[in-house]
Specification:
261 residues; alpha+beta; N-terminal domain of MutM-like DNA repair proteins; Helicase, Ruva Protein, domain 3
């Protein structure tokens, strides 16, 4: 899942391939950037903020969002592109040594680097960044006490980087029912700290694990495990729509208030 750790890893791949390189060609396959051309410009930096990728090219920043299906792939010149169907390609950047291809990219835009704040300034503390601020993250969560905690965790204005996978796993580990109002969540500080711990543990690798295992089928506690036995208690994992996303939880380990003894 392209959550904060995946976006961080993608930024590192692009940084290794492109930083310091002069672009020998650029191609944008989206109407709003059809006439843009970065040829001759130098890639200064590849960075990210939450789920937002920021490729800085001289005075410009190419901003993209992966959402559920986006990706960037790097190839040697002349190599076959294997990242997906050609019609899903949104950006092609060429240097003398590599070709970077962006597939299914969302919210694609090109802005002056000095204006980046217009695109990312609303984000909460970045869970994968060196300037991570847990106190500010707690403050933002607590500012909406009536909101369901699962939806509050997905709001990038509170904490930047959490997606549906980490949302479900964080709440399971902390034994919190996903529909619990923020005001009733015990120890928000511990929950925020766990979020940081889980995401940063996966920096530098593509397999996202919250259980500590990298074996196929063993990487999550509840996410994607509907009707499978809970790894703690054996109760079948449940799933349900919550807002615009699907929530996974264990009804025994994360009981609703009325079900608690």
């Amino acid at each position: 899942m392209p959550e904060g750790d995946t976006v961080w890893n993608t930024a590192q791949v692009l940084a290794k391939a492109l930083t310091g390189q002069v672009l020998t060609g650029s191609e944008f396959r989206v109407p709003q950037l059809a006439t843009a051309d970065l040829t001759g410009k130098t890639v200064v930096e590849s960075a990210c903020r939450g789920k937002h990728l920021l490729l800085r090219v001289d005075e410009w920043t190419l901003h993209s969002h992966l959402r559920m299906d986006g990706s960037w792939k790097v190839y040697a010149p002349g190599a076959r592109w294997t990242g997906g169907p050609g019609h899903t390609i949104r950006v092609v950047l060429r240097t003398r040594d590599v070709v970077a291809v962006g597939y299914h990219l969302h919210e694609l835009s090109l802005v002056r680097t000095r204006e980046e704040a217009k695109l990312t300034g609303f984000l909460g503390p970045d869970l994968c960044a060196d300037d991570w601020d847990p106190a500010e993250a707690r403050r933002r969560l607590a500012a909406q006490p009536d909101r369901q905690i699962a939806e509050a965790l997905l709001d990038q204005r509170n904490l930047a980087g959490i997606g549906n996978l980490y949302k479900a796993e964080i709440l399971f580990i902390r034994r919190v029912w996903p529909w619990t109002p923020v005001r009733d969540v015990p120890d928000l500080a511990a929950l925020v700290g766990l979020a940081r711990e889980l995401l940063t543990a996966n920096l530098g690798r593509w397999t996202q694990s919250t259980t500590g295992s990298l074996r196929r089928g063993e990487t999550t506690y509840v996410y994607g495990r509907r009707n499978l036995p809970c790894r703690r208690c054996g109760t079948p994992i449940r799933s349900a729509d919550q807002g615009e996303r699907i929530t996974y939880w264990c009804p025994t380990c994360q009981p609703a208030p009325a079900e608690r003894g």
